[in-house]
Write a structure and sequence with these properties.
45% of the residues lie in helices and 11% in strands. The chain is built from 16 helices and ten strands. Helix 2 runs antiparallel to helix 16 and helix 6 packs across helix 7. With 393 residues, it is an alpha/beta fold. The strands form two sheets. It has an eight-stranded parallel beta sheet.
Length: 393
C-alpha cells in the first residue's frame, strides 16, 4: 500500500466511525459525490412515488412486543439457498458501483464477507465478475442483464460459472429503462456521453469533489468510453441497460445454469408462481428501488401475497425501502427469508469505501438486535405476523 493509499484508508476509517445511521451515510455520500453520481444513486423514476412508498410502508409498521421475556441475545442467523449468513441482510446488485468509490465491487464483496453475508454483483457494476471474484476472495452472487439477448446471457452465465459463482439472479423488471428525471436534469440521459453539451457542467461537479476524483483517477477509472465489464457495459458516469427477458428465456437460463437460480423483480403472487414454474429456487420481491415503474406497489405491501403464492416451493427475499434494522425484522415477520439493501450500502461506500459498507452493515445488525430484544423475540426463526399489529382497515 502506497503512502497515499494508506492515508486515504485512514481517512475512510475515520469517516466510517462518524456514521451512526443510514441517514448519516446518505448525508456523507451527498457531500462526497458529484451531484450527477449522487443523484444516480439516490434518485428514482418520474415523481419518485414508488421510492417514497417503499419507505412509507415500513414507517407504517407497528410491532407487538412481548414484555419480560429475558431475551438479551437473539439469534439472527439464517440459511439462504443453503448458505448460512450471520444476519439476514444481503447486498443487492447495483450499477456502476466502481464509480462511487475506488474500492468498488471488490470492496463491497469483502465488506459483505467480513460481516458474514454476501453481495450480488451486477452485470453493469463496472468490473467483470472474474476480477471481482479474484480481487475479493469472497463468495459472490451474480445478477444478469443481457441487452444483447440470449447469446449474451449464455456467455455471461458461462463466465460467472467459470469464476465460481453458485447463485444466478435474473432481473425481470427492466424491459426498458425508467424515466429517471434527476439524471435527465443533470444532462446525462442514458447512455451518457461527455461532449460539448455537458462537459462543462459535469467537469465543474467533478472538480468540486477532488477527493472522489483523485481516488478514481488513481485506479485508472475513466469517466467516459467503454467500461471494464462486459463489452459495452458500465462505461461512462451513467450506463443503463434494458433487458427484456421473457418467461421462456428464464426456462432456457434455468436449464443452462447448474447452481441456485433466483428471479428478481416480482410484485405479485401470479408472477411469483410463474417464476417458480420456470425453475426459480428463490424470488426477490422488488420494484427496482422505484427506479423503473413509478406507481408500483411498495415491496413490503406486495410481500405477503408473494409468500402465500409461493408457499414452501421457493424462498422469498425482499428488496426495497430497508433503512433500519427494524425494517429487516418487519420484512421477516411478513415472510421474507432475508432482505437486500442497495442505496444504504452505496451511501456507505461513497462515504468511506469498504469501511463504510462494513459500518452500514454493523448499524443494521445492531438496530436489528436491539429491536428483537425490545420485542422479546428470541430468534428470527420465531418471527411471524403475530409480532405485528394488524393494519387498520
Amino acid at each position: 500500500m502506497s503512502g497515499l493509499d494508506g492515508f486515504l484508508a485512514r481517512v475512510d476509517a475515520r469517516a466510517a466511525e462518524r456514521l451512526h445511521s443510514i441517514r448519516d451515510a446518505r448525508r456523507a455520500a451527498r457531500r462526497r459525490l458529484p451531484t450527477v453520481v449522487f443523484d444516480y444513486v439516490d434518485g428514482a423514476a418520474d415523481d419518485e412515488v414508488t421510492l417514497r412508498r417503499n419507505e412509507d410502508a415500513f414507517r407504517a409498521v407497528t410491532f407487538r412486543p412481548e414484555m419480560a421475556s429475558g431475551i438479551v441475545e437473539p439469534a439472527l442467523g439464517v440459511t439462504v439457498l443453503g448458505n448460512a449468513v450471520d444476519f439476514p441482510v444481503l447486498l443487492a446488485p447495483c450499477g456502476l458501483t466502481r464509480l462511487i468509490h475506488a474500492d468498488g465491487p471488490s470492496g463491497v464483496a469483502r465488506a459483505a464477507a467480513s460481516r458474514g453475508t454476501v453481495s450480488v454483483l451486477s452485470t453493469v457494476a463496472g468490473s467483470p465478475v472474474e476480477a471481482v471474484v479474484a480481487e475479493s476472495g469472497a463468495p459472490l452472487w451474480f445478477q444478469l442483464y443481457a441487452a444483447g439477448g440470449l447469446d449474451e446471457a449464455d456467455q455471461l452465465c458461462d463466465r460467472a460459472a467459470a469464476a465460481g459463482v453458485e447463485v444466478l439472479v435474473v432481473t425481470v423488471d427492466t424491459p426498458t429503462i425508467g424515466n429517471r428525471e434527476r439524471d435527465v436534469r443533470n444532462g446525462v440521459s442514458p447512455p451518457l456521453r461527455i461532449d460539448a453539451h455537458n462537459a462543462v457542467p459535469l467537469g465543474v461537479q467533478v472538480l468540486a469533489r477532488p477527493r472522489w476524483a483523485a481516488q478514481l483517477a488513481a485506479t485508472g477509472i475513466r469517466l467516459s468510453g467503454r467500461g471494464a465489464g462486459p463489452p459495452g457495459r458500465g462505461g461512462g458516469l451513467l450506463s443503463s441497460v434494458a433487458s427484456p427477458f421473457s418467461w421462456d428465456d428464464l426456462v432456457h437460463l434455468r436449464k443452462r445454469w447448474h447452481g441456485s437460480f433466483v428471479v428478481k423483480g416480482i410484485l405479485s403472487g401470479a408472477d411469483a408462481r410463474r417464476a417458480v414454474e420456470s425453475g426459480a429456487d428463490a424470488v426477490i420481491v422488488s420494484n427496482h428501488g422505484g427506479r423503473q415503474l413509478d406507481g408500483a406497489p411498495a415491496t413490503l405491501d406486495a410481500l405477503p401475497g408473494v409468500v402465500a403464492a409461493v408457499g414452501g416451493d421457493a424462498q422469498v427475499l425482499l428488496d426495497g425501502g430497508v433503512r433500519r434494522g427494524a425494517h429487516v425484522v418487519a420484512a421477516l415477520a411478513l415472510g421474507a427469508r432475508a432482505v437486500l439493501i442497495g442505496r444504504p450500502y452505496l451511501f456507505g461506500l461513497a462515504a468511506a469505501g469498504e469501511r463504510g459498507v462494513e459500518r452500514v452493515l454493523d448499524i443494521l445488525r445492531a438496530e436489528m438486535r436491539r429491536t428483537m430484544v425490545l420485542m422479546g423475540c428470541p430468534s428470527v426463526e420465531r418471527l411471524g405476523p403475530d409480532w405485528l399489529e394488524a393494519p387498520r382497515p
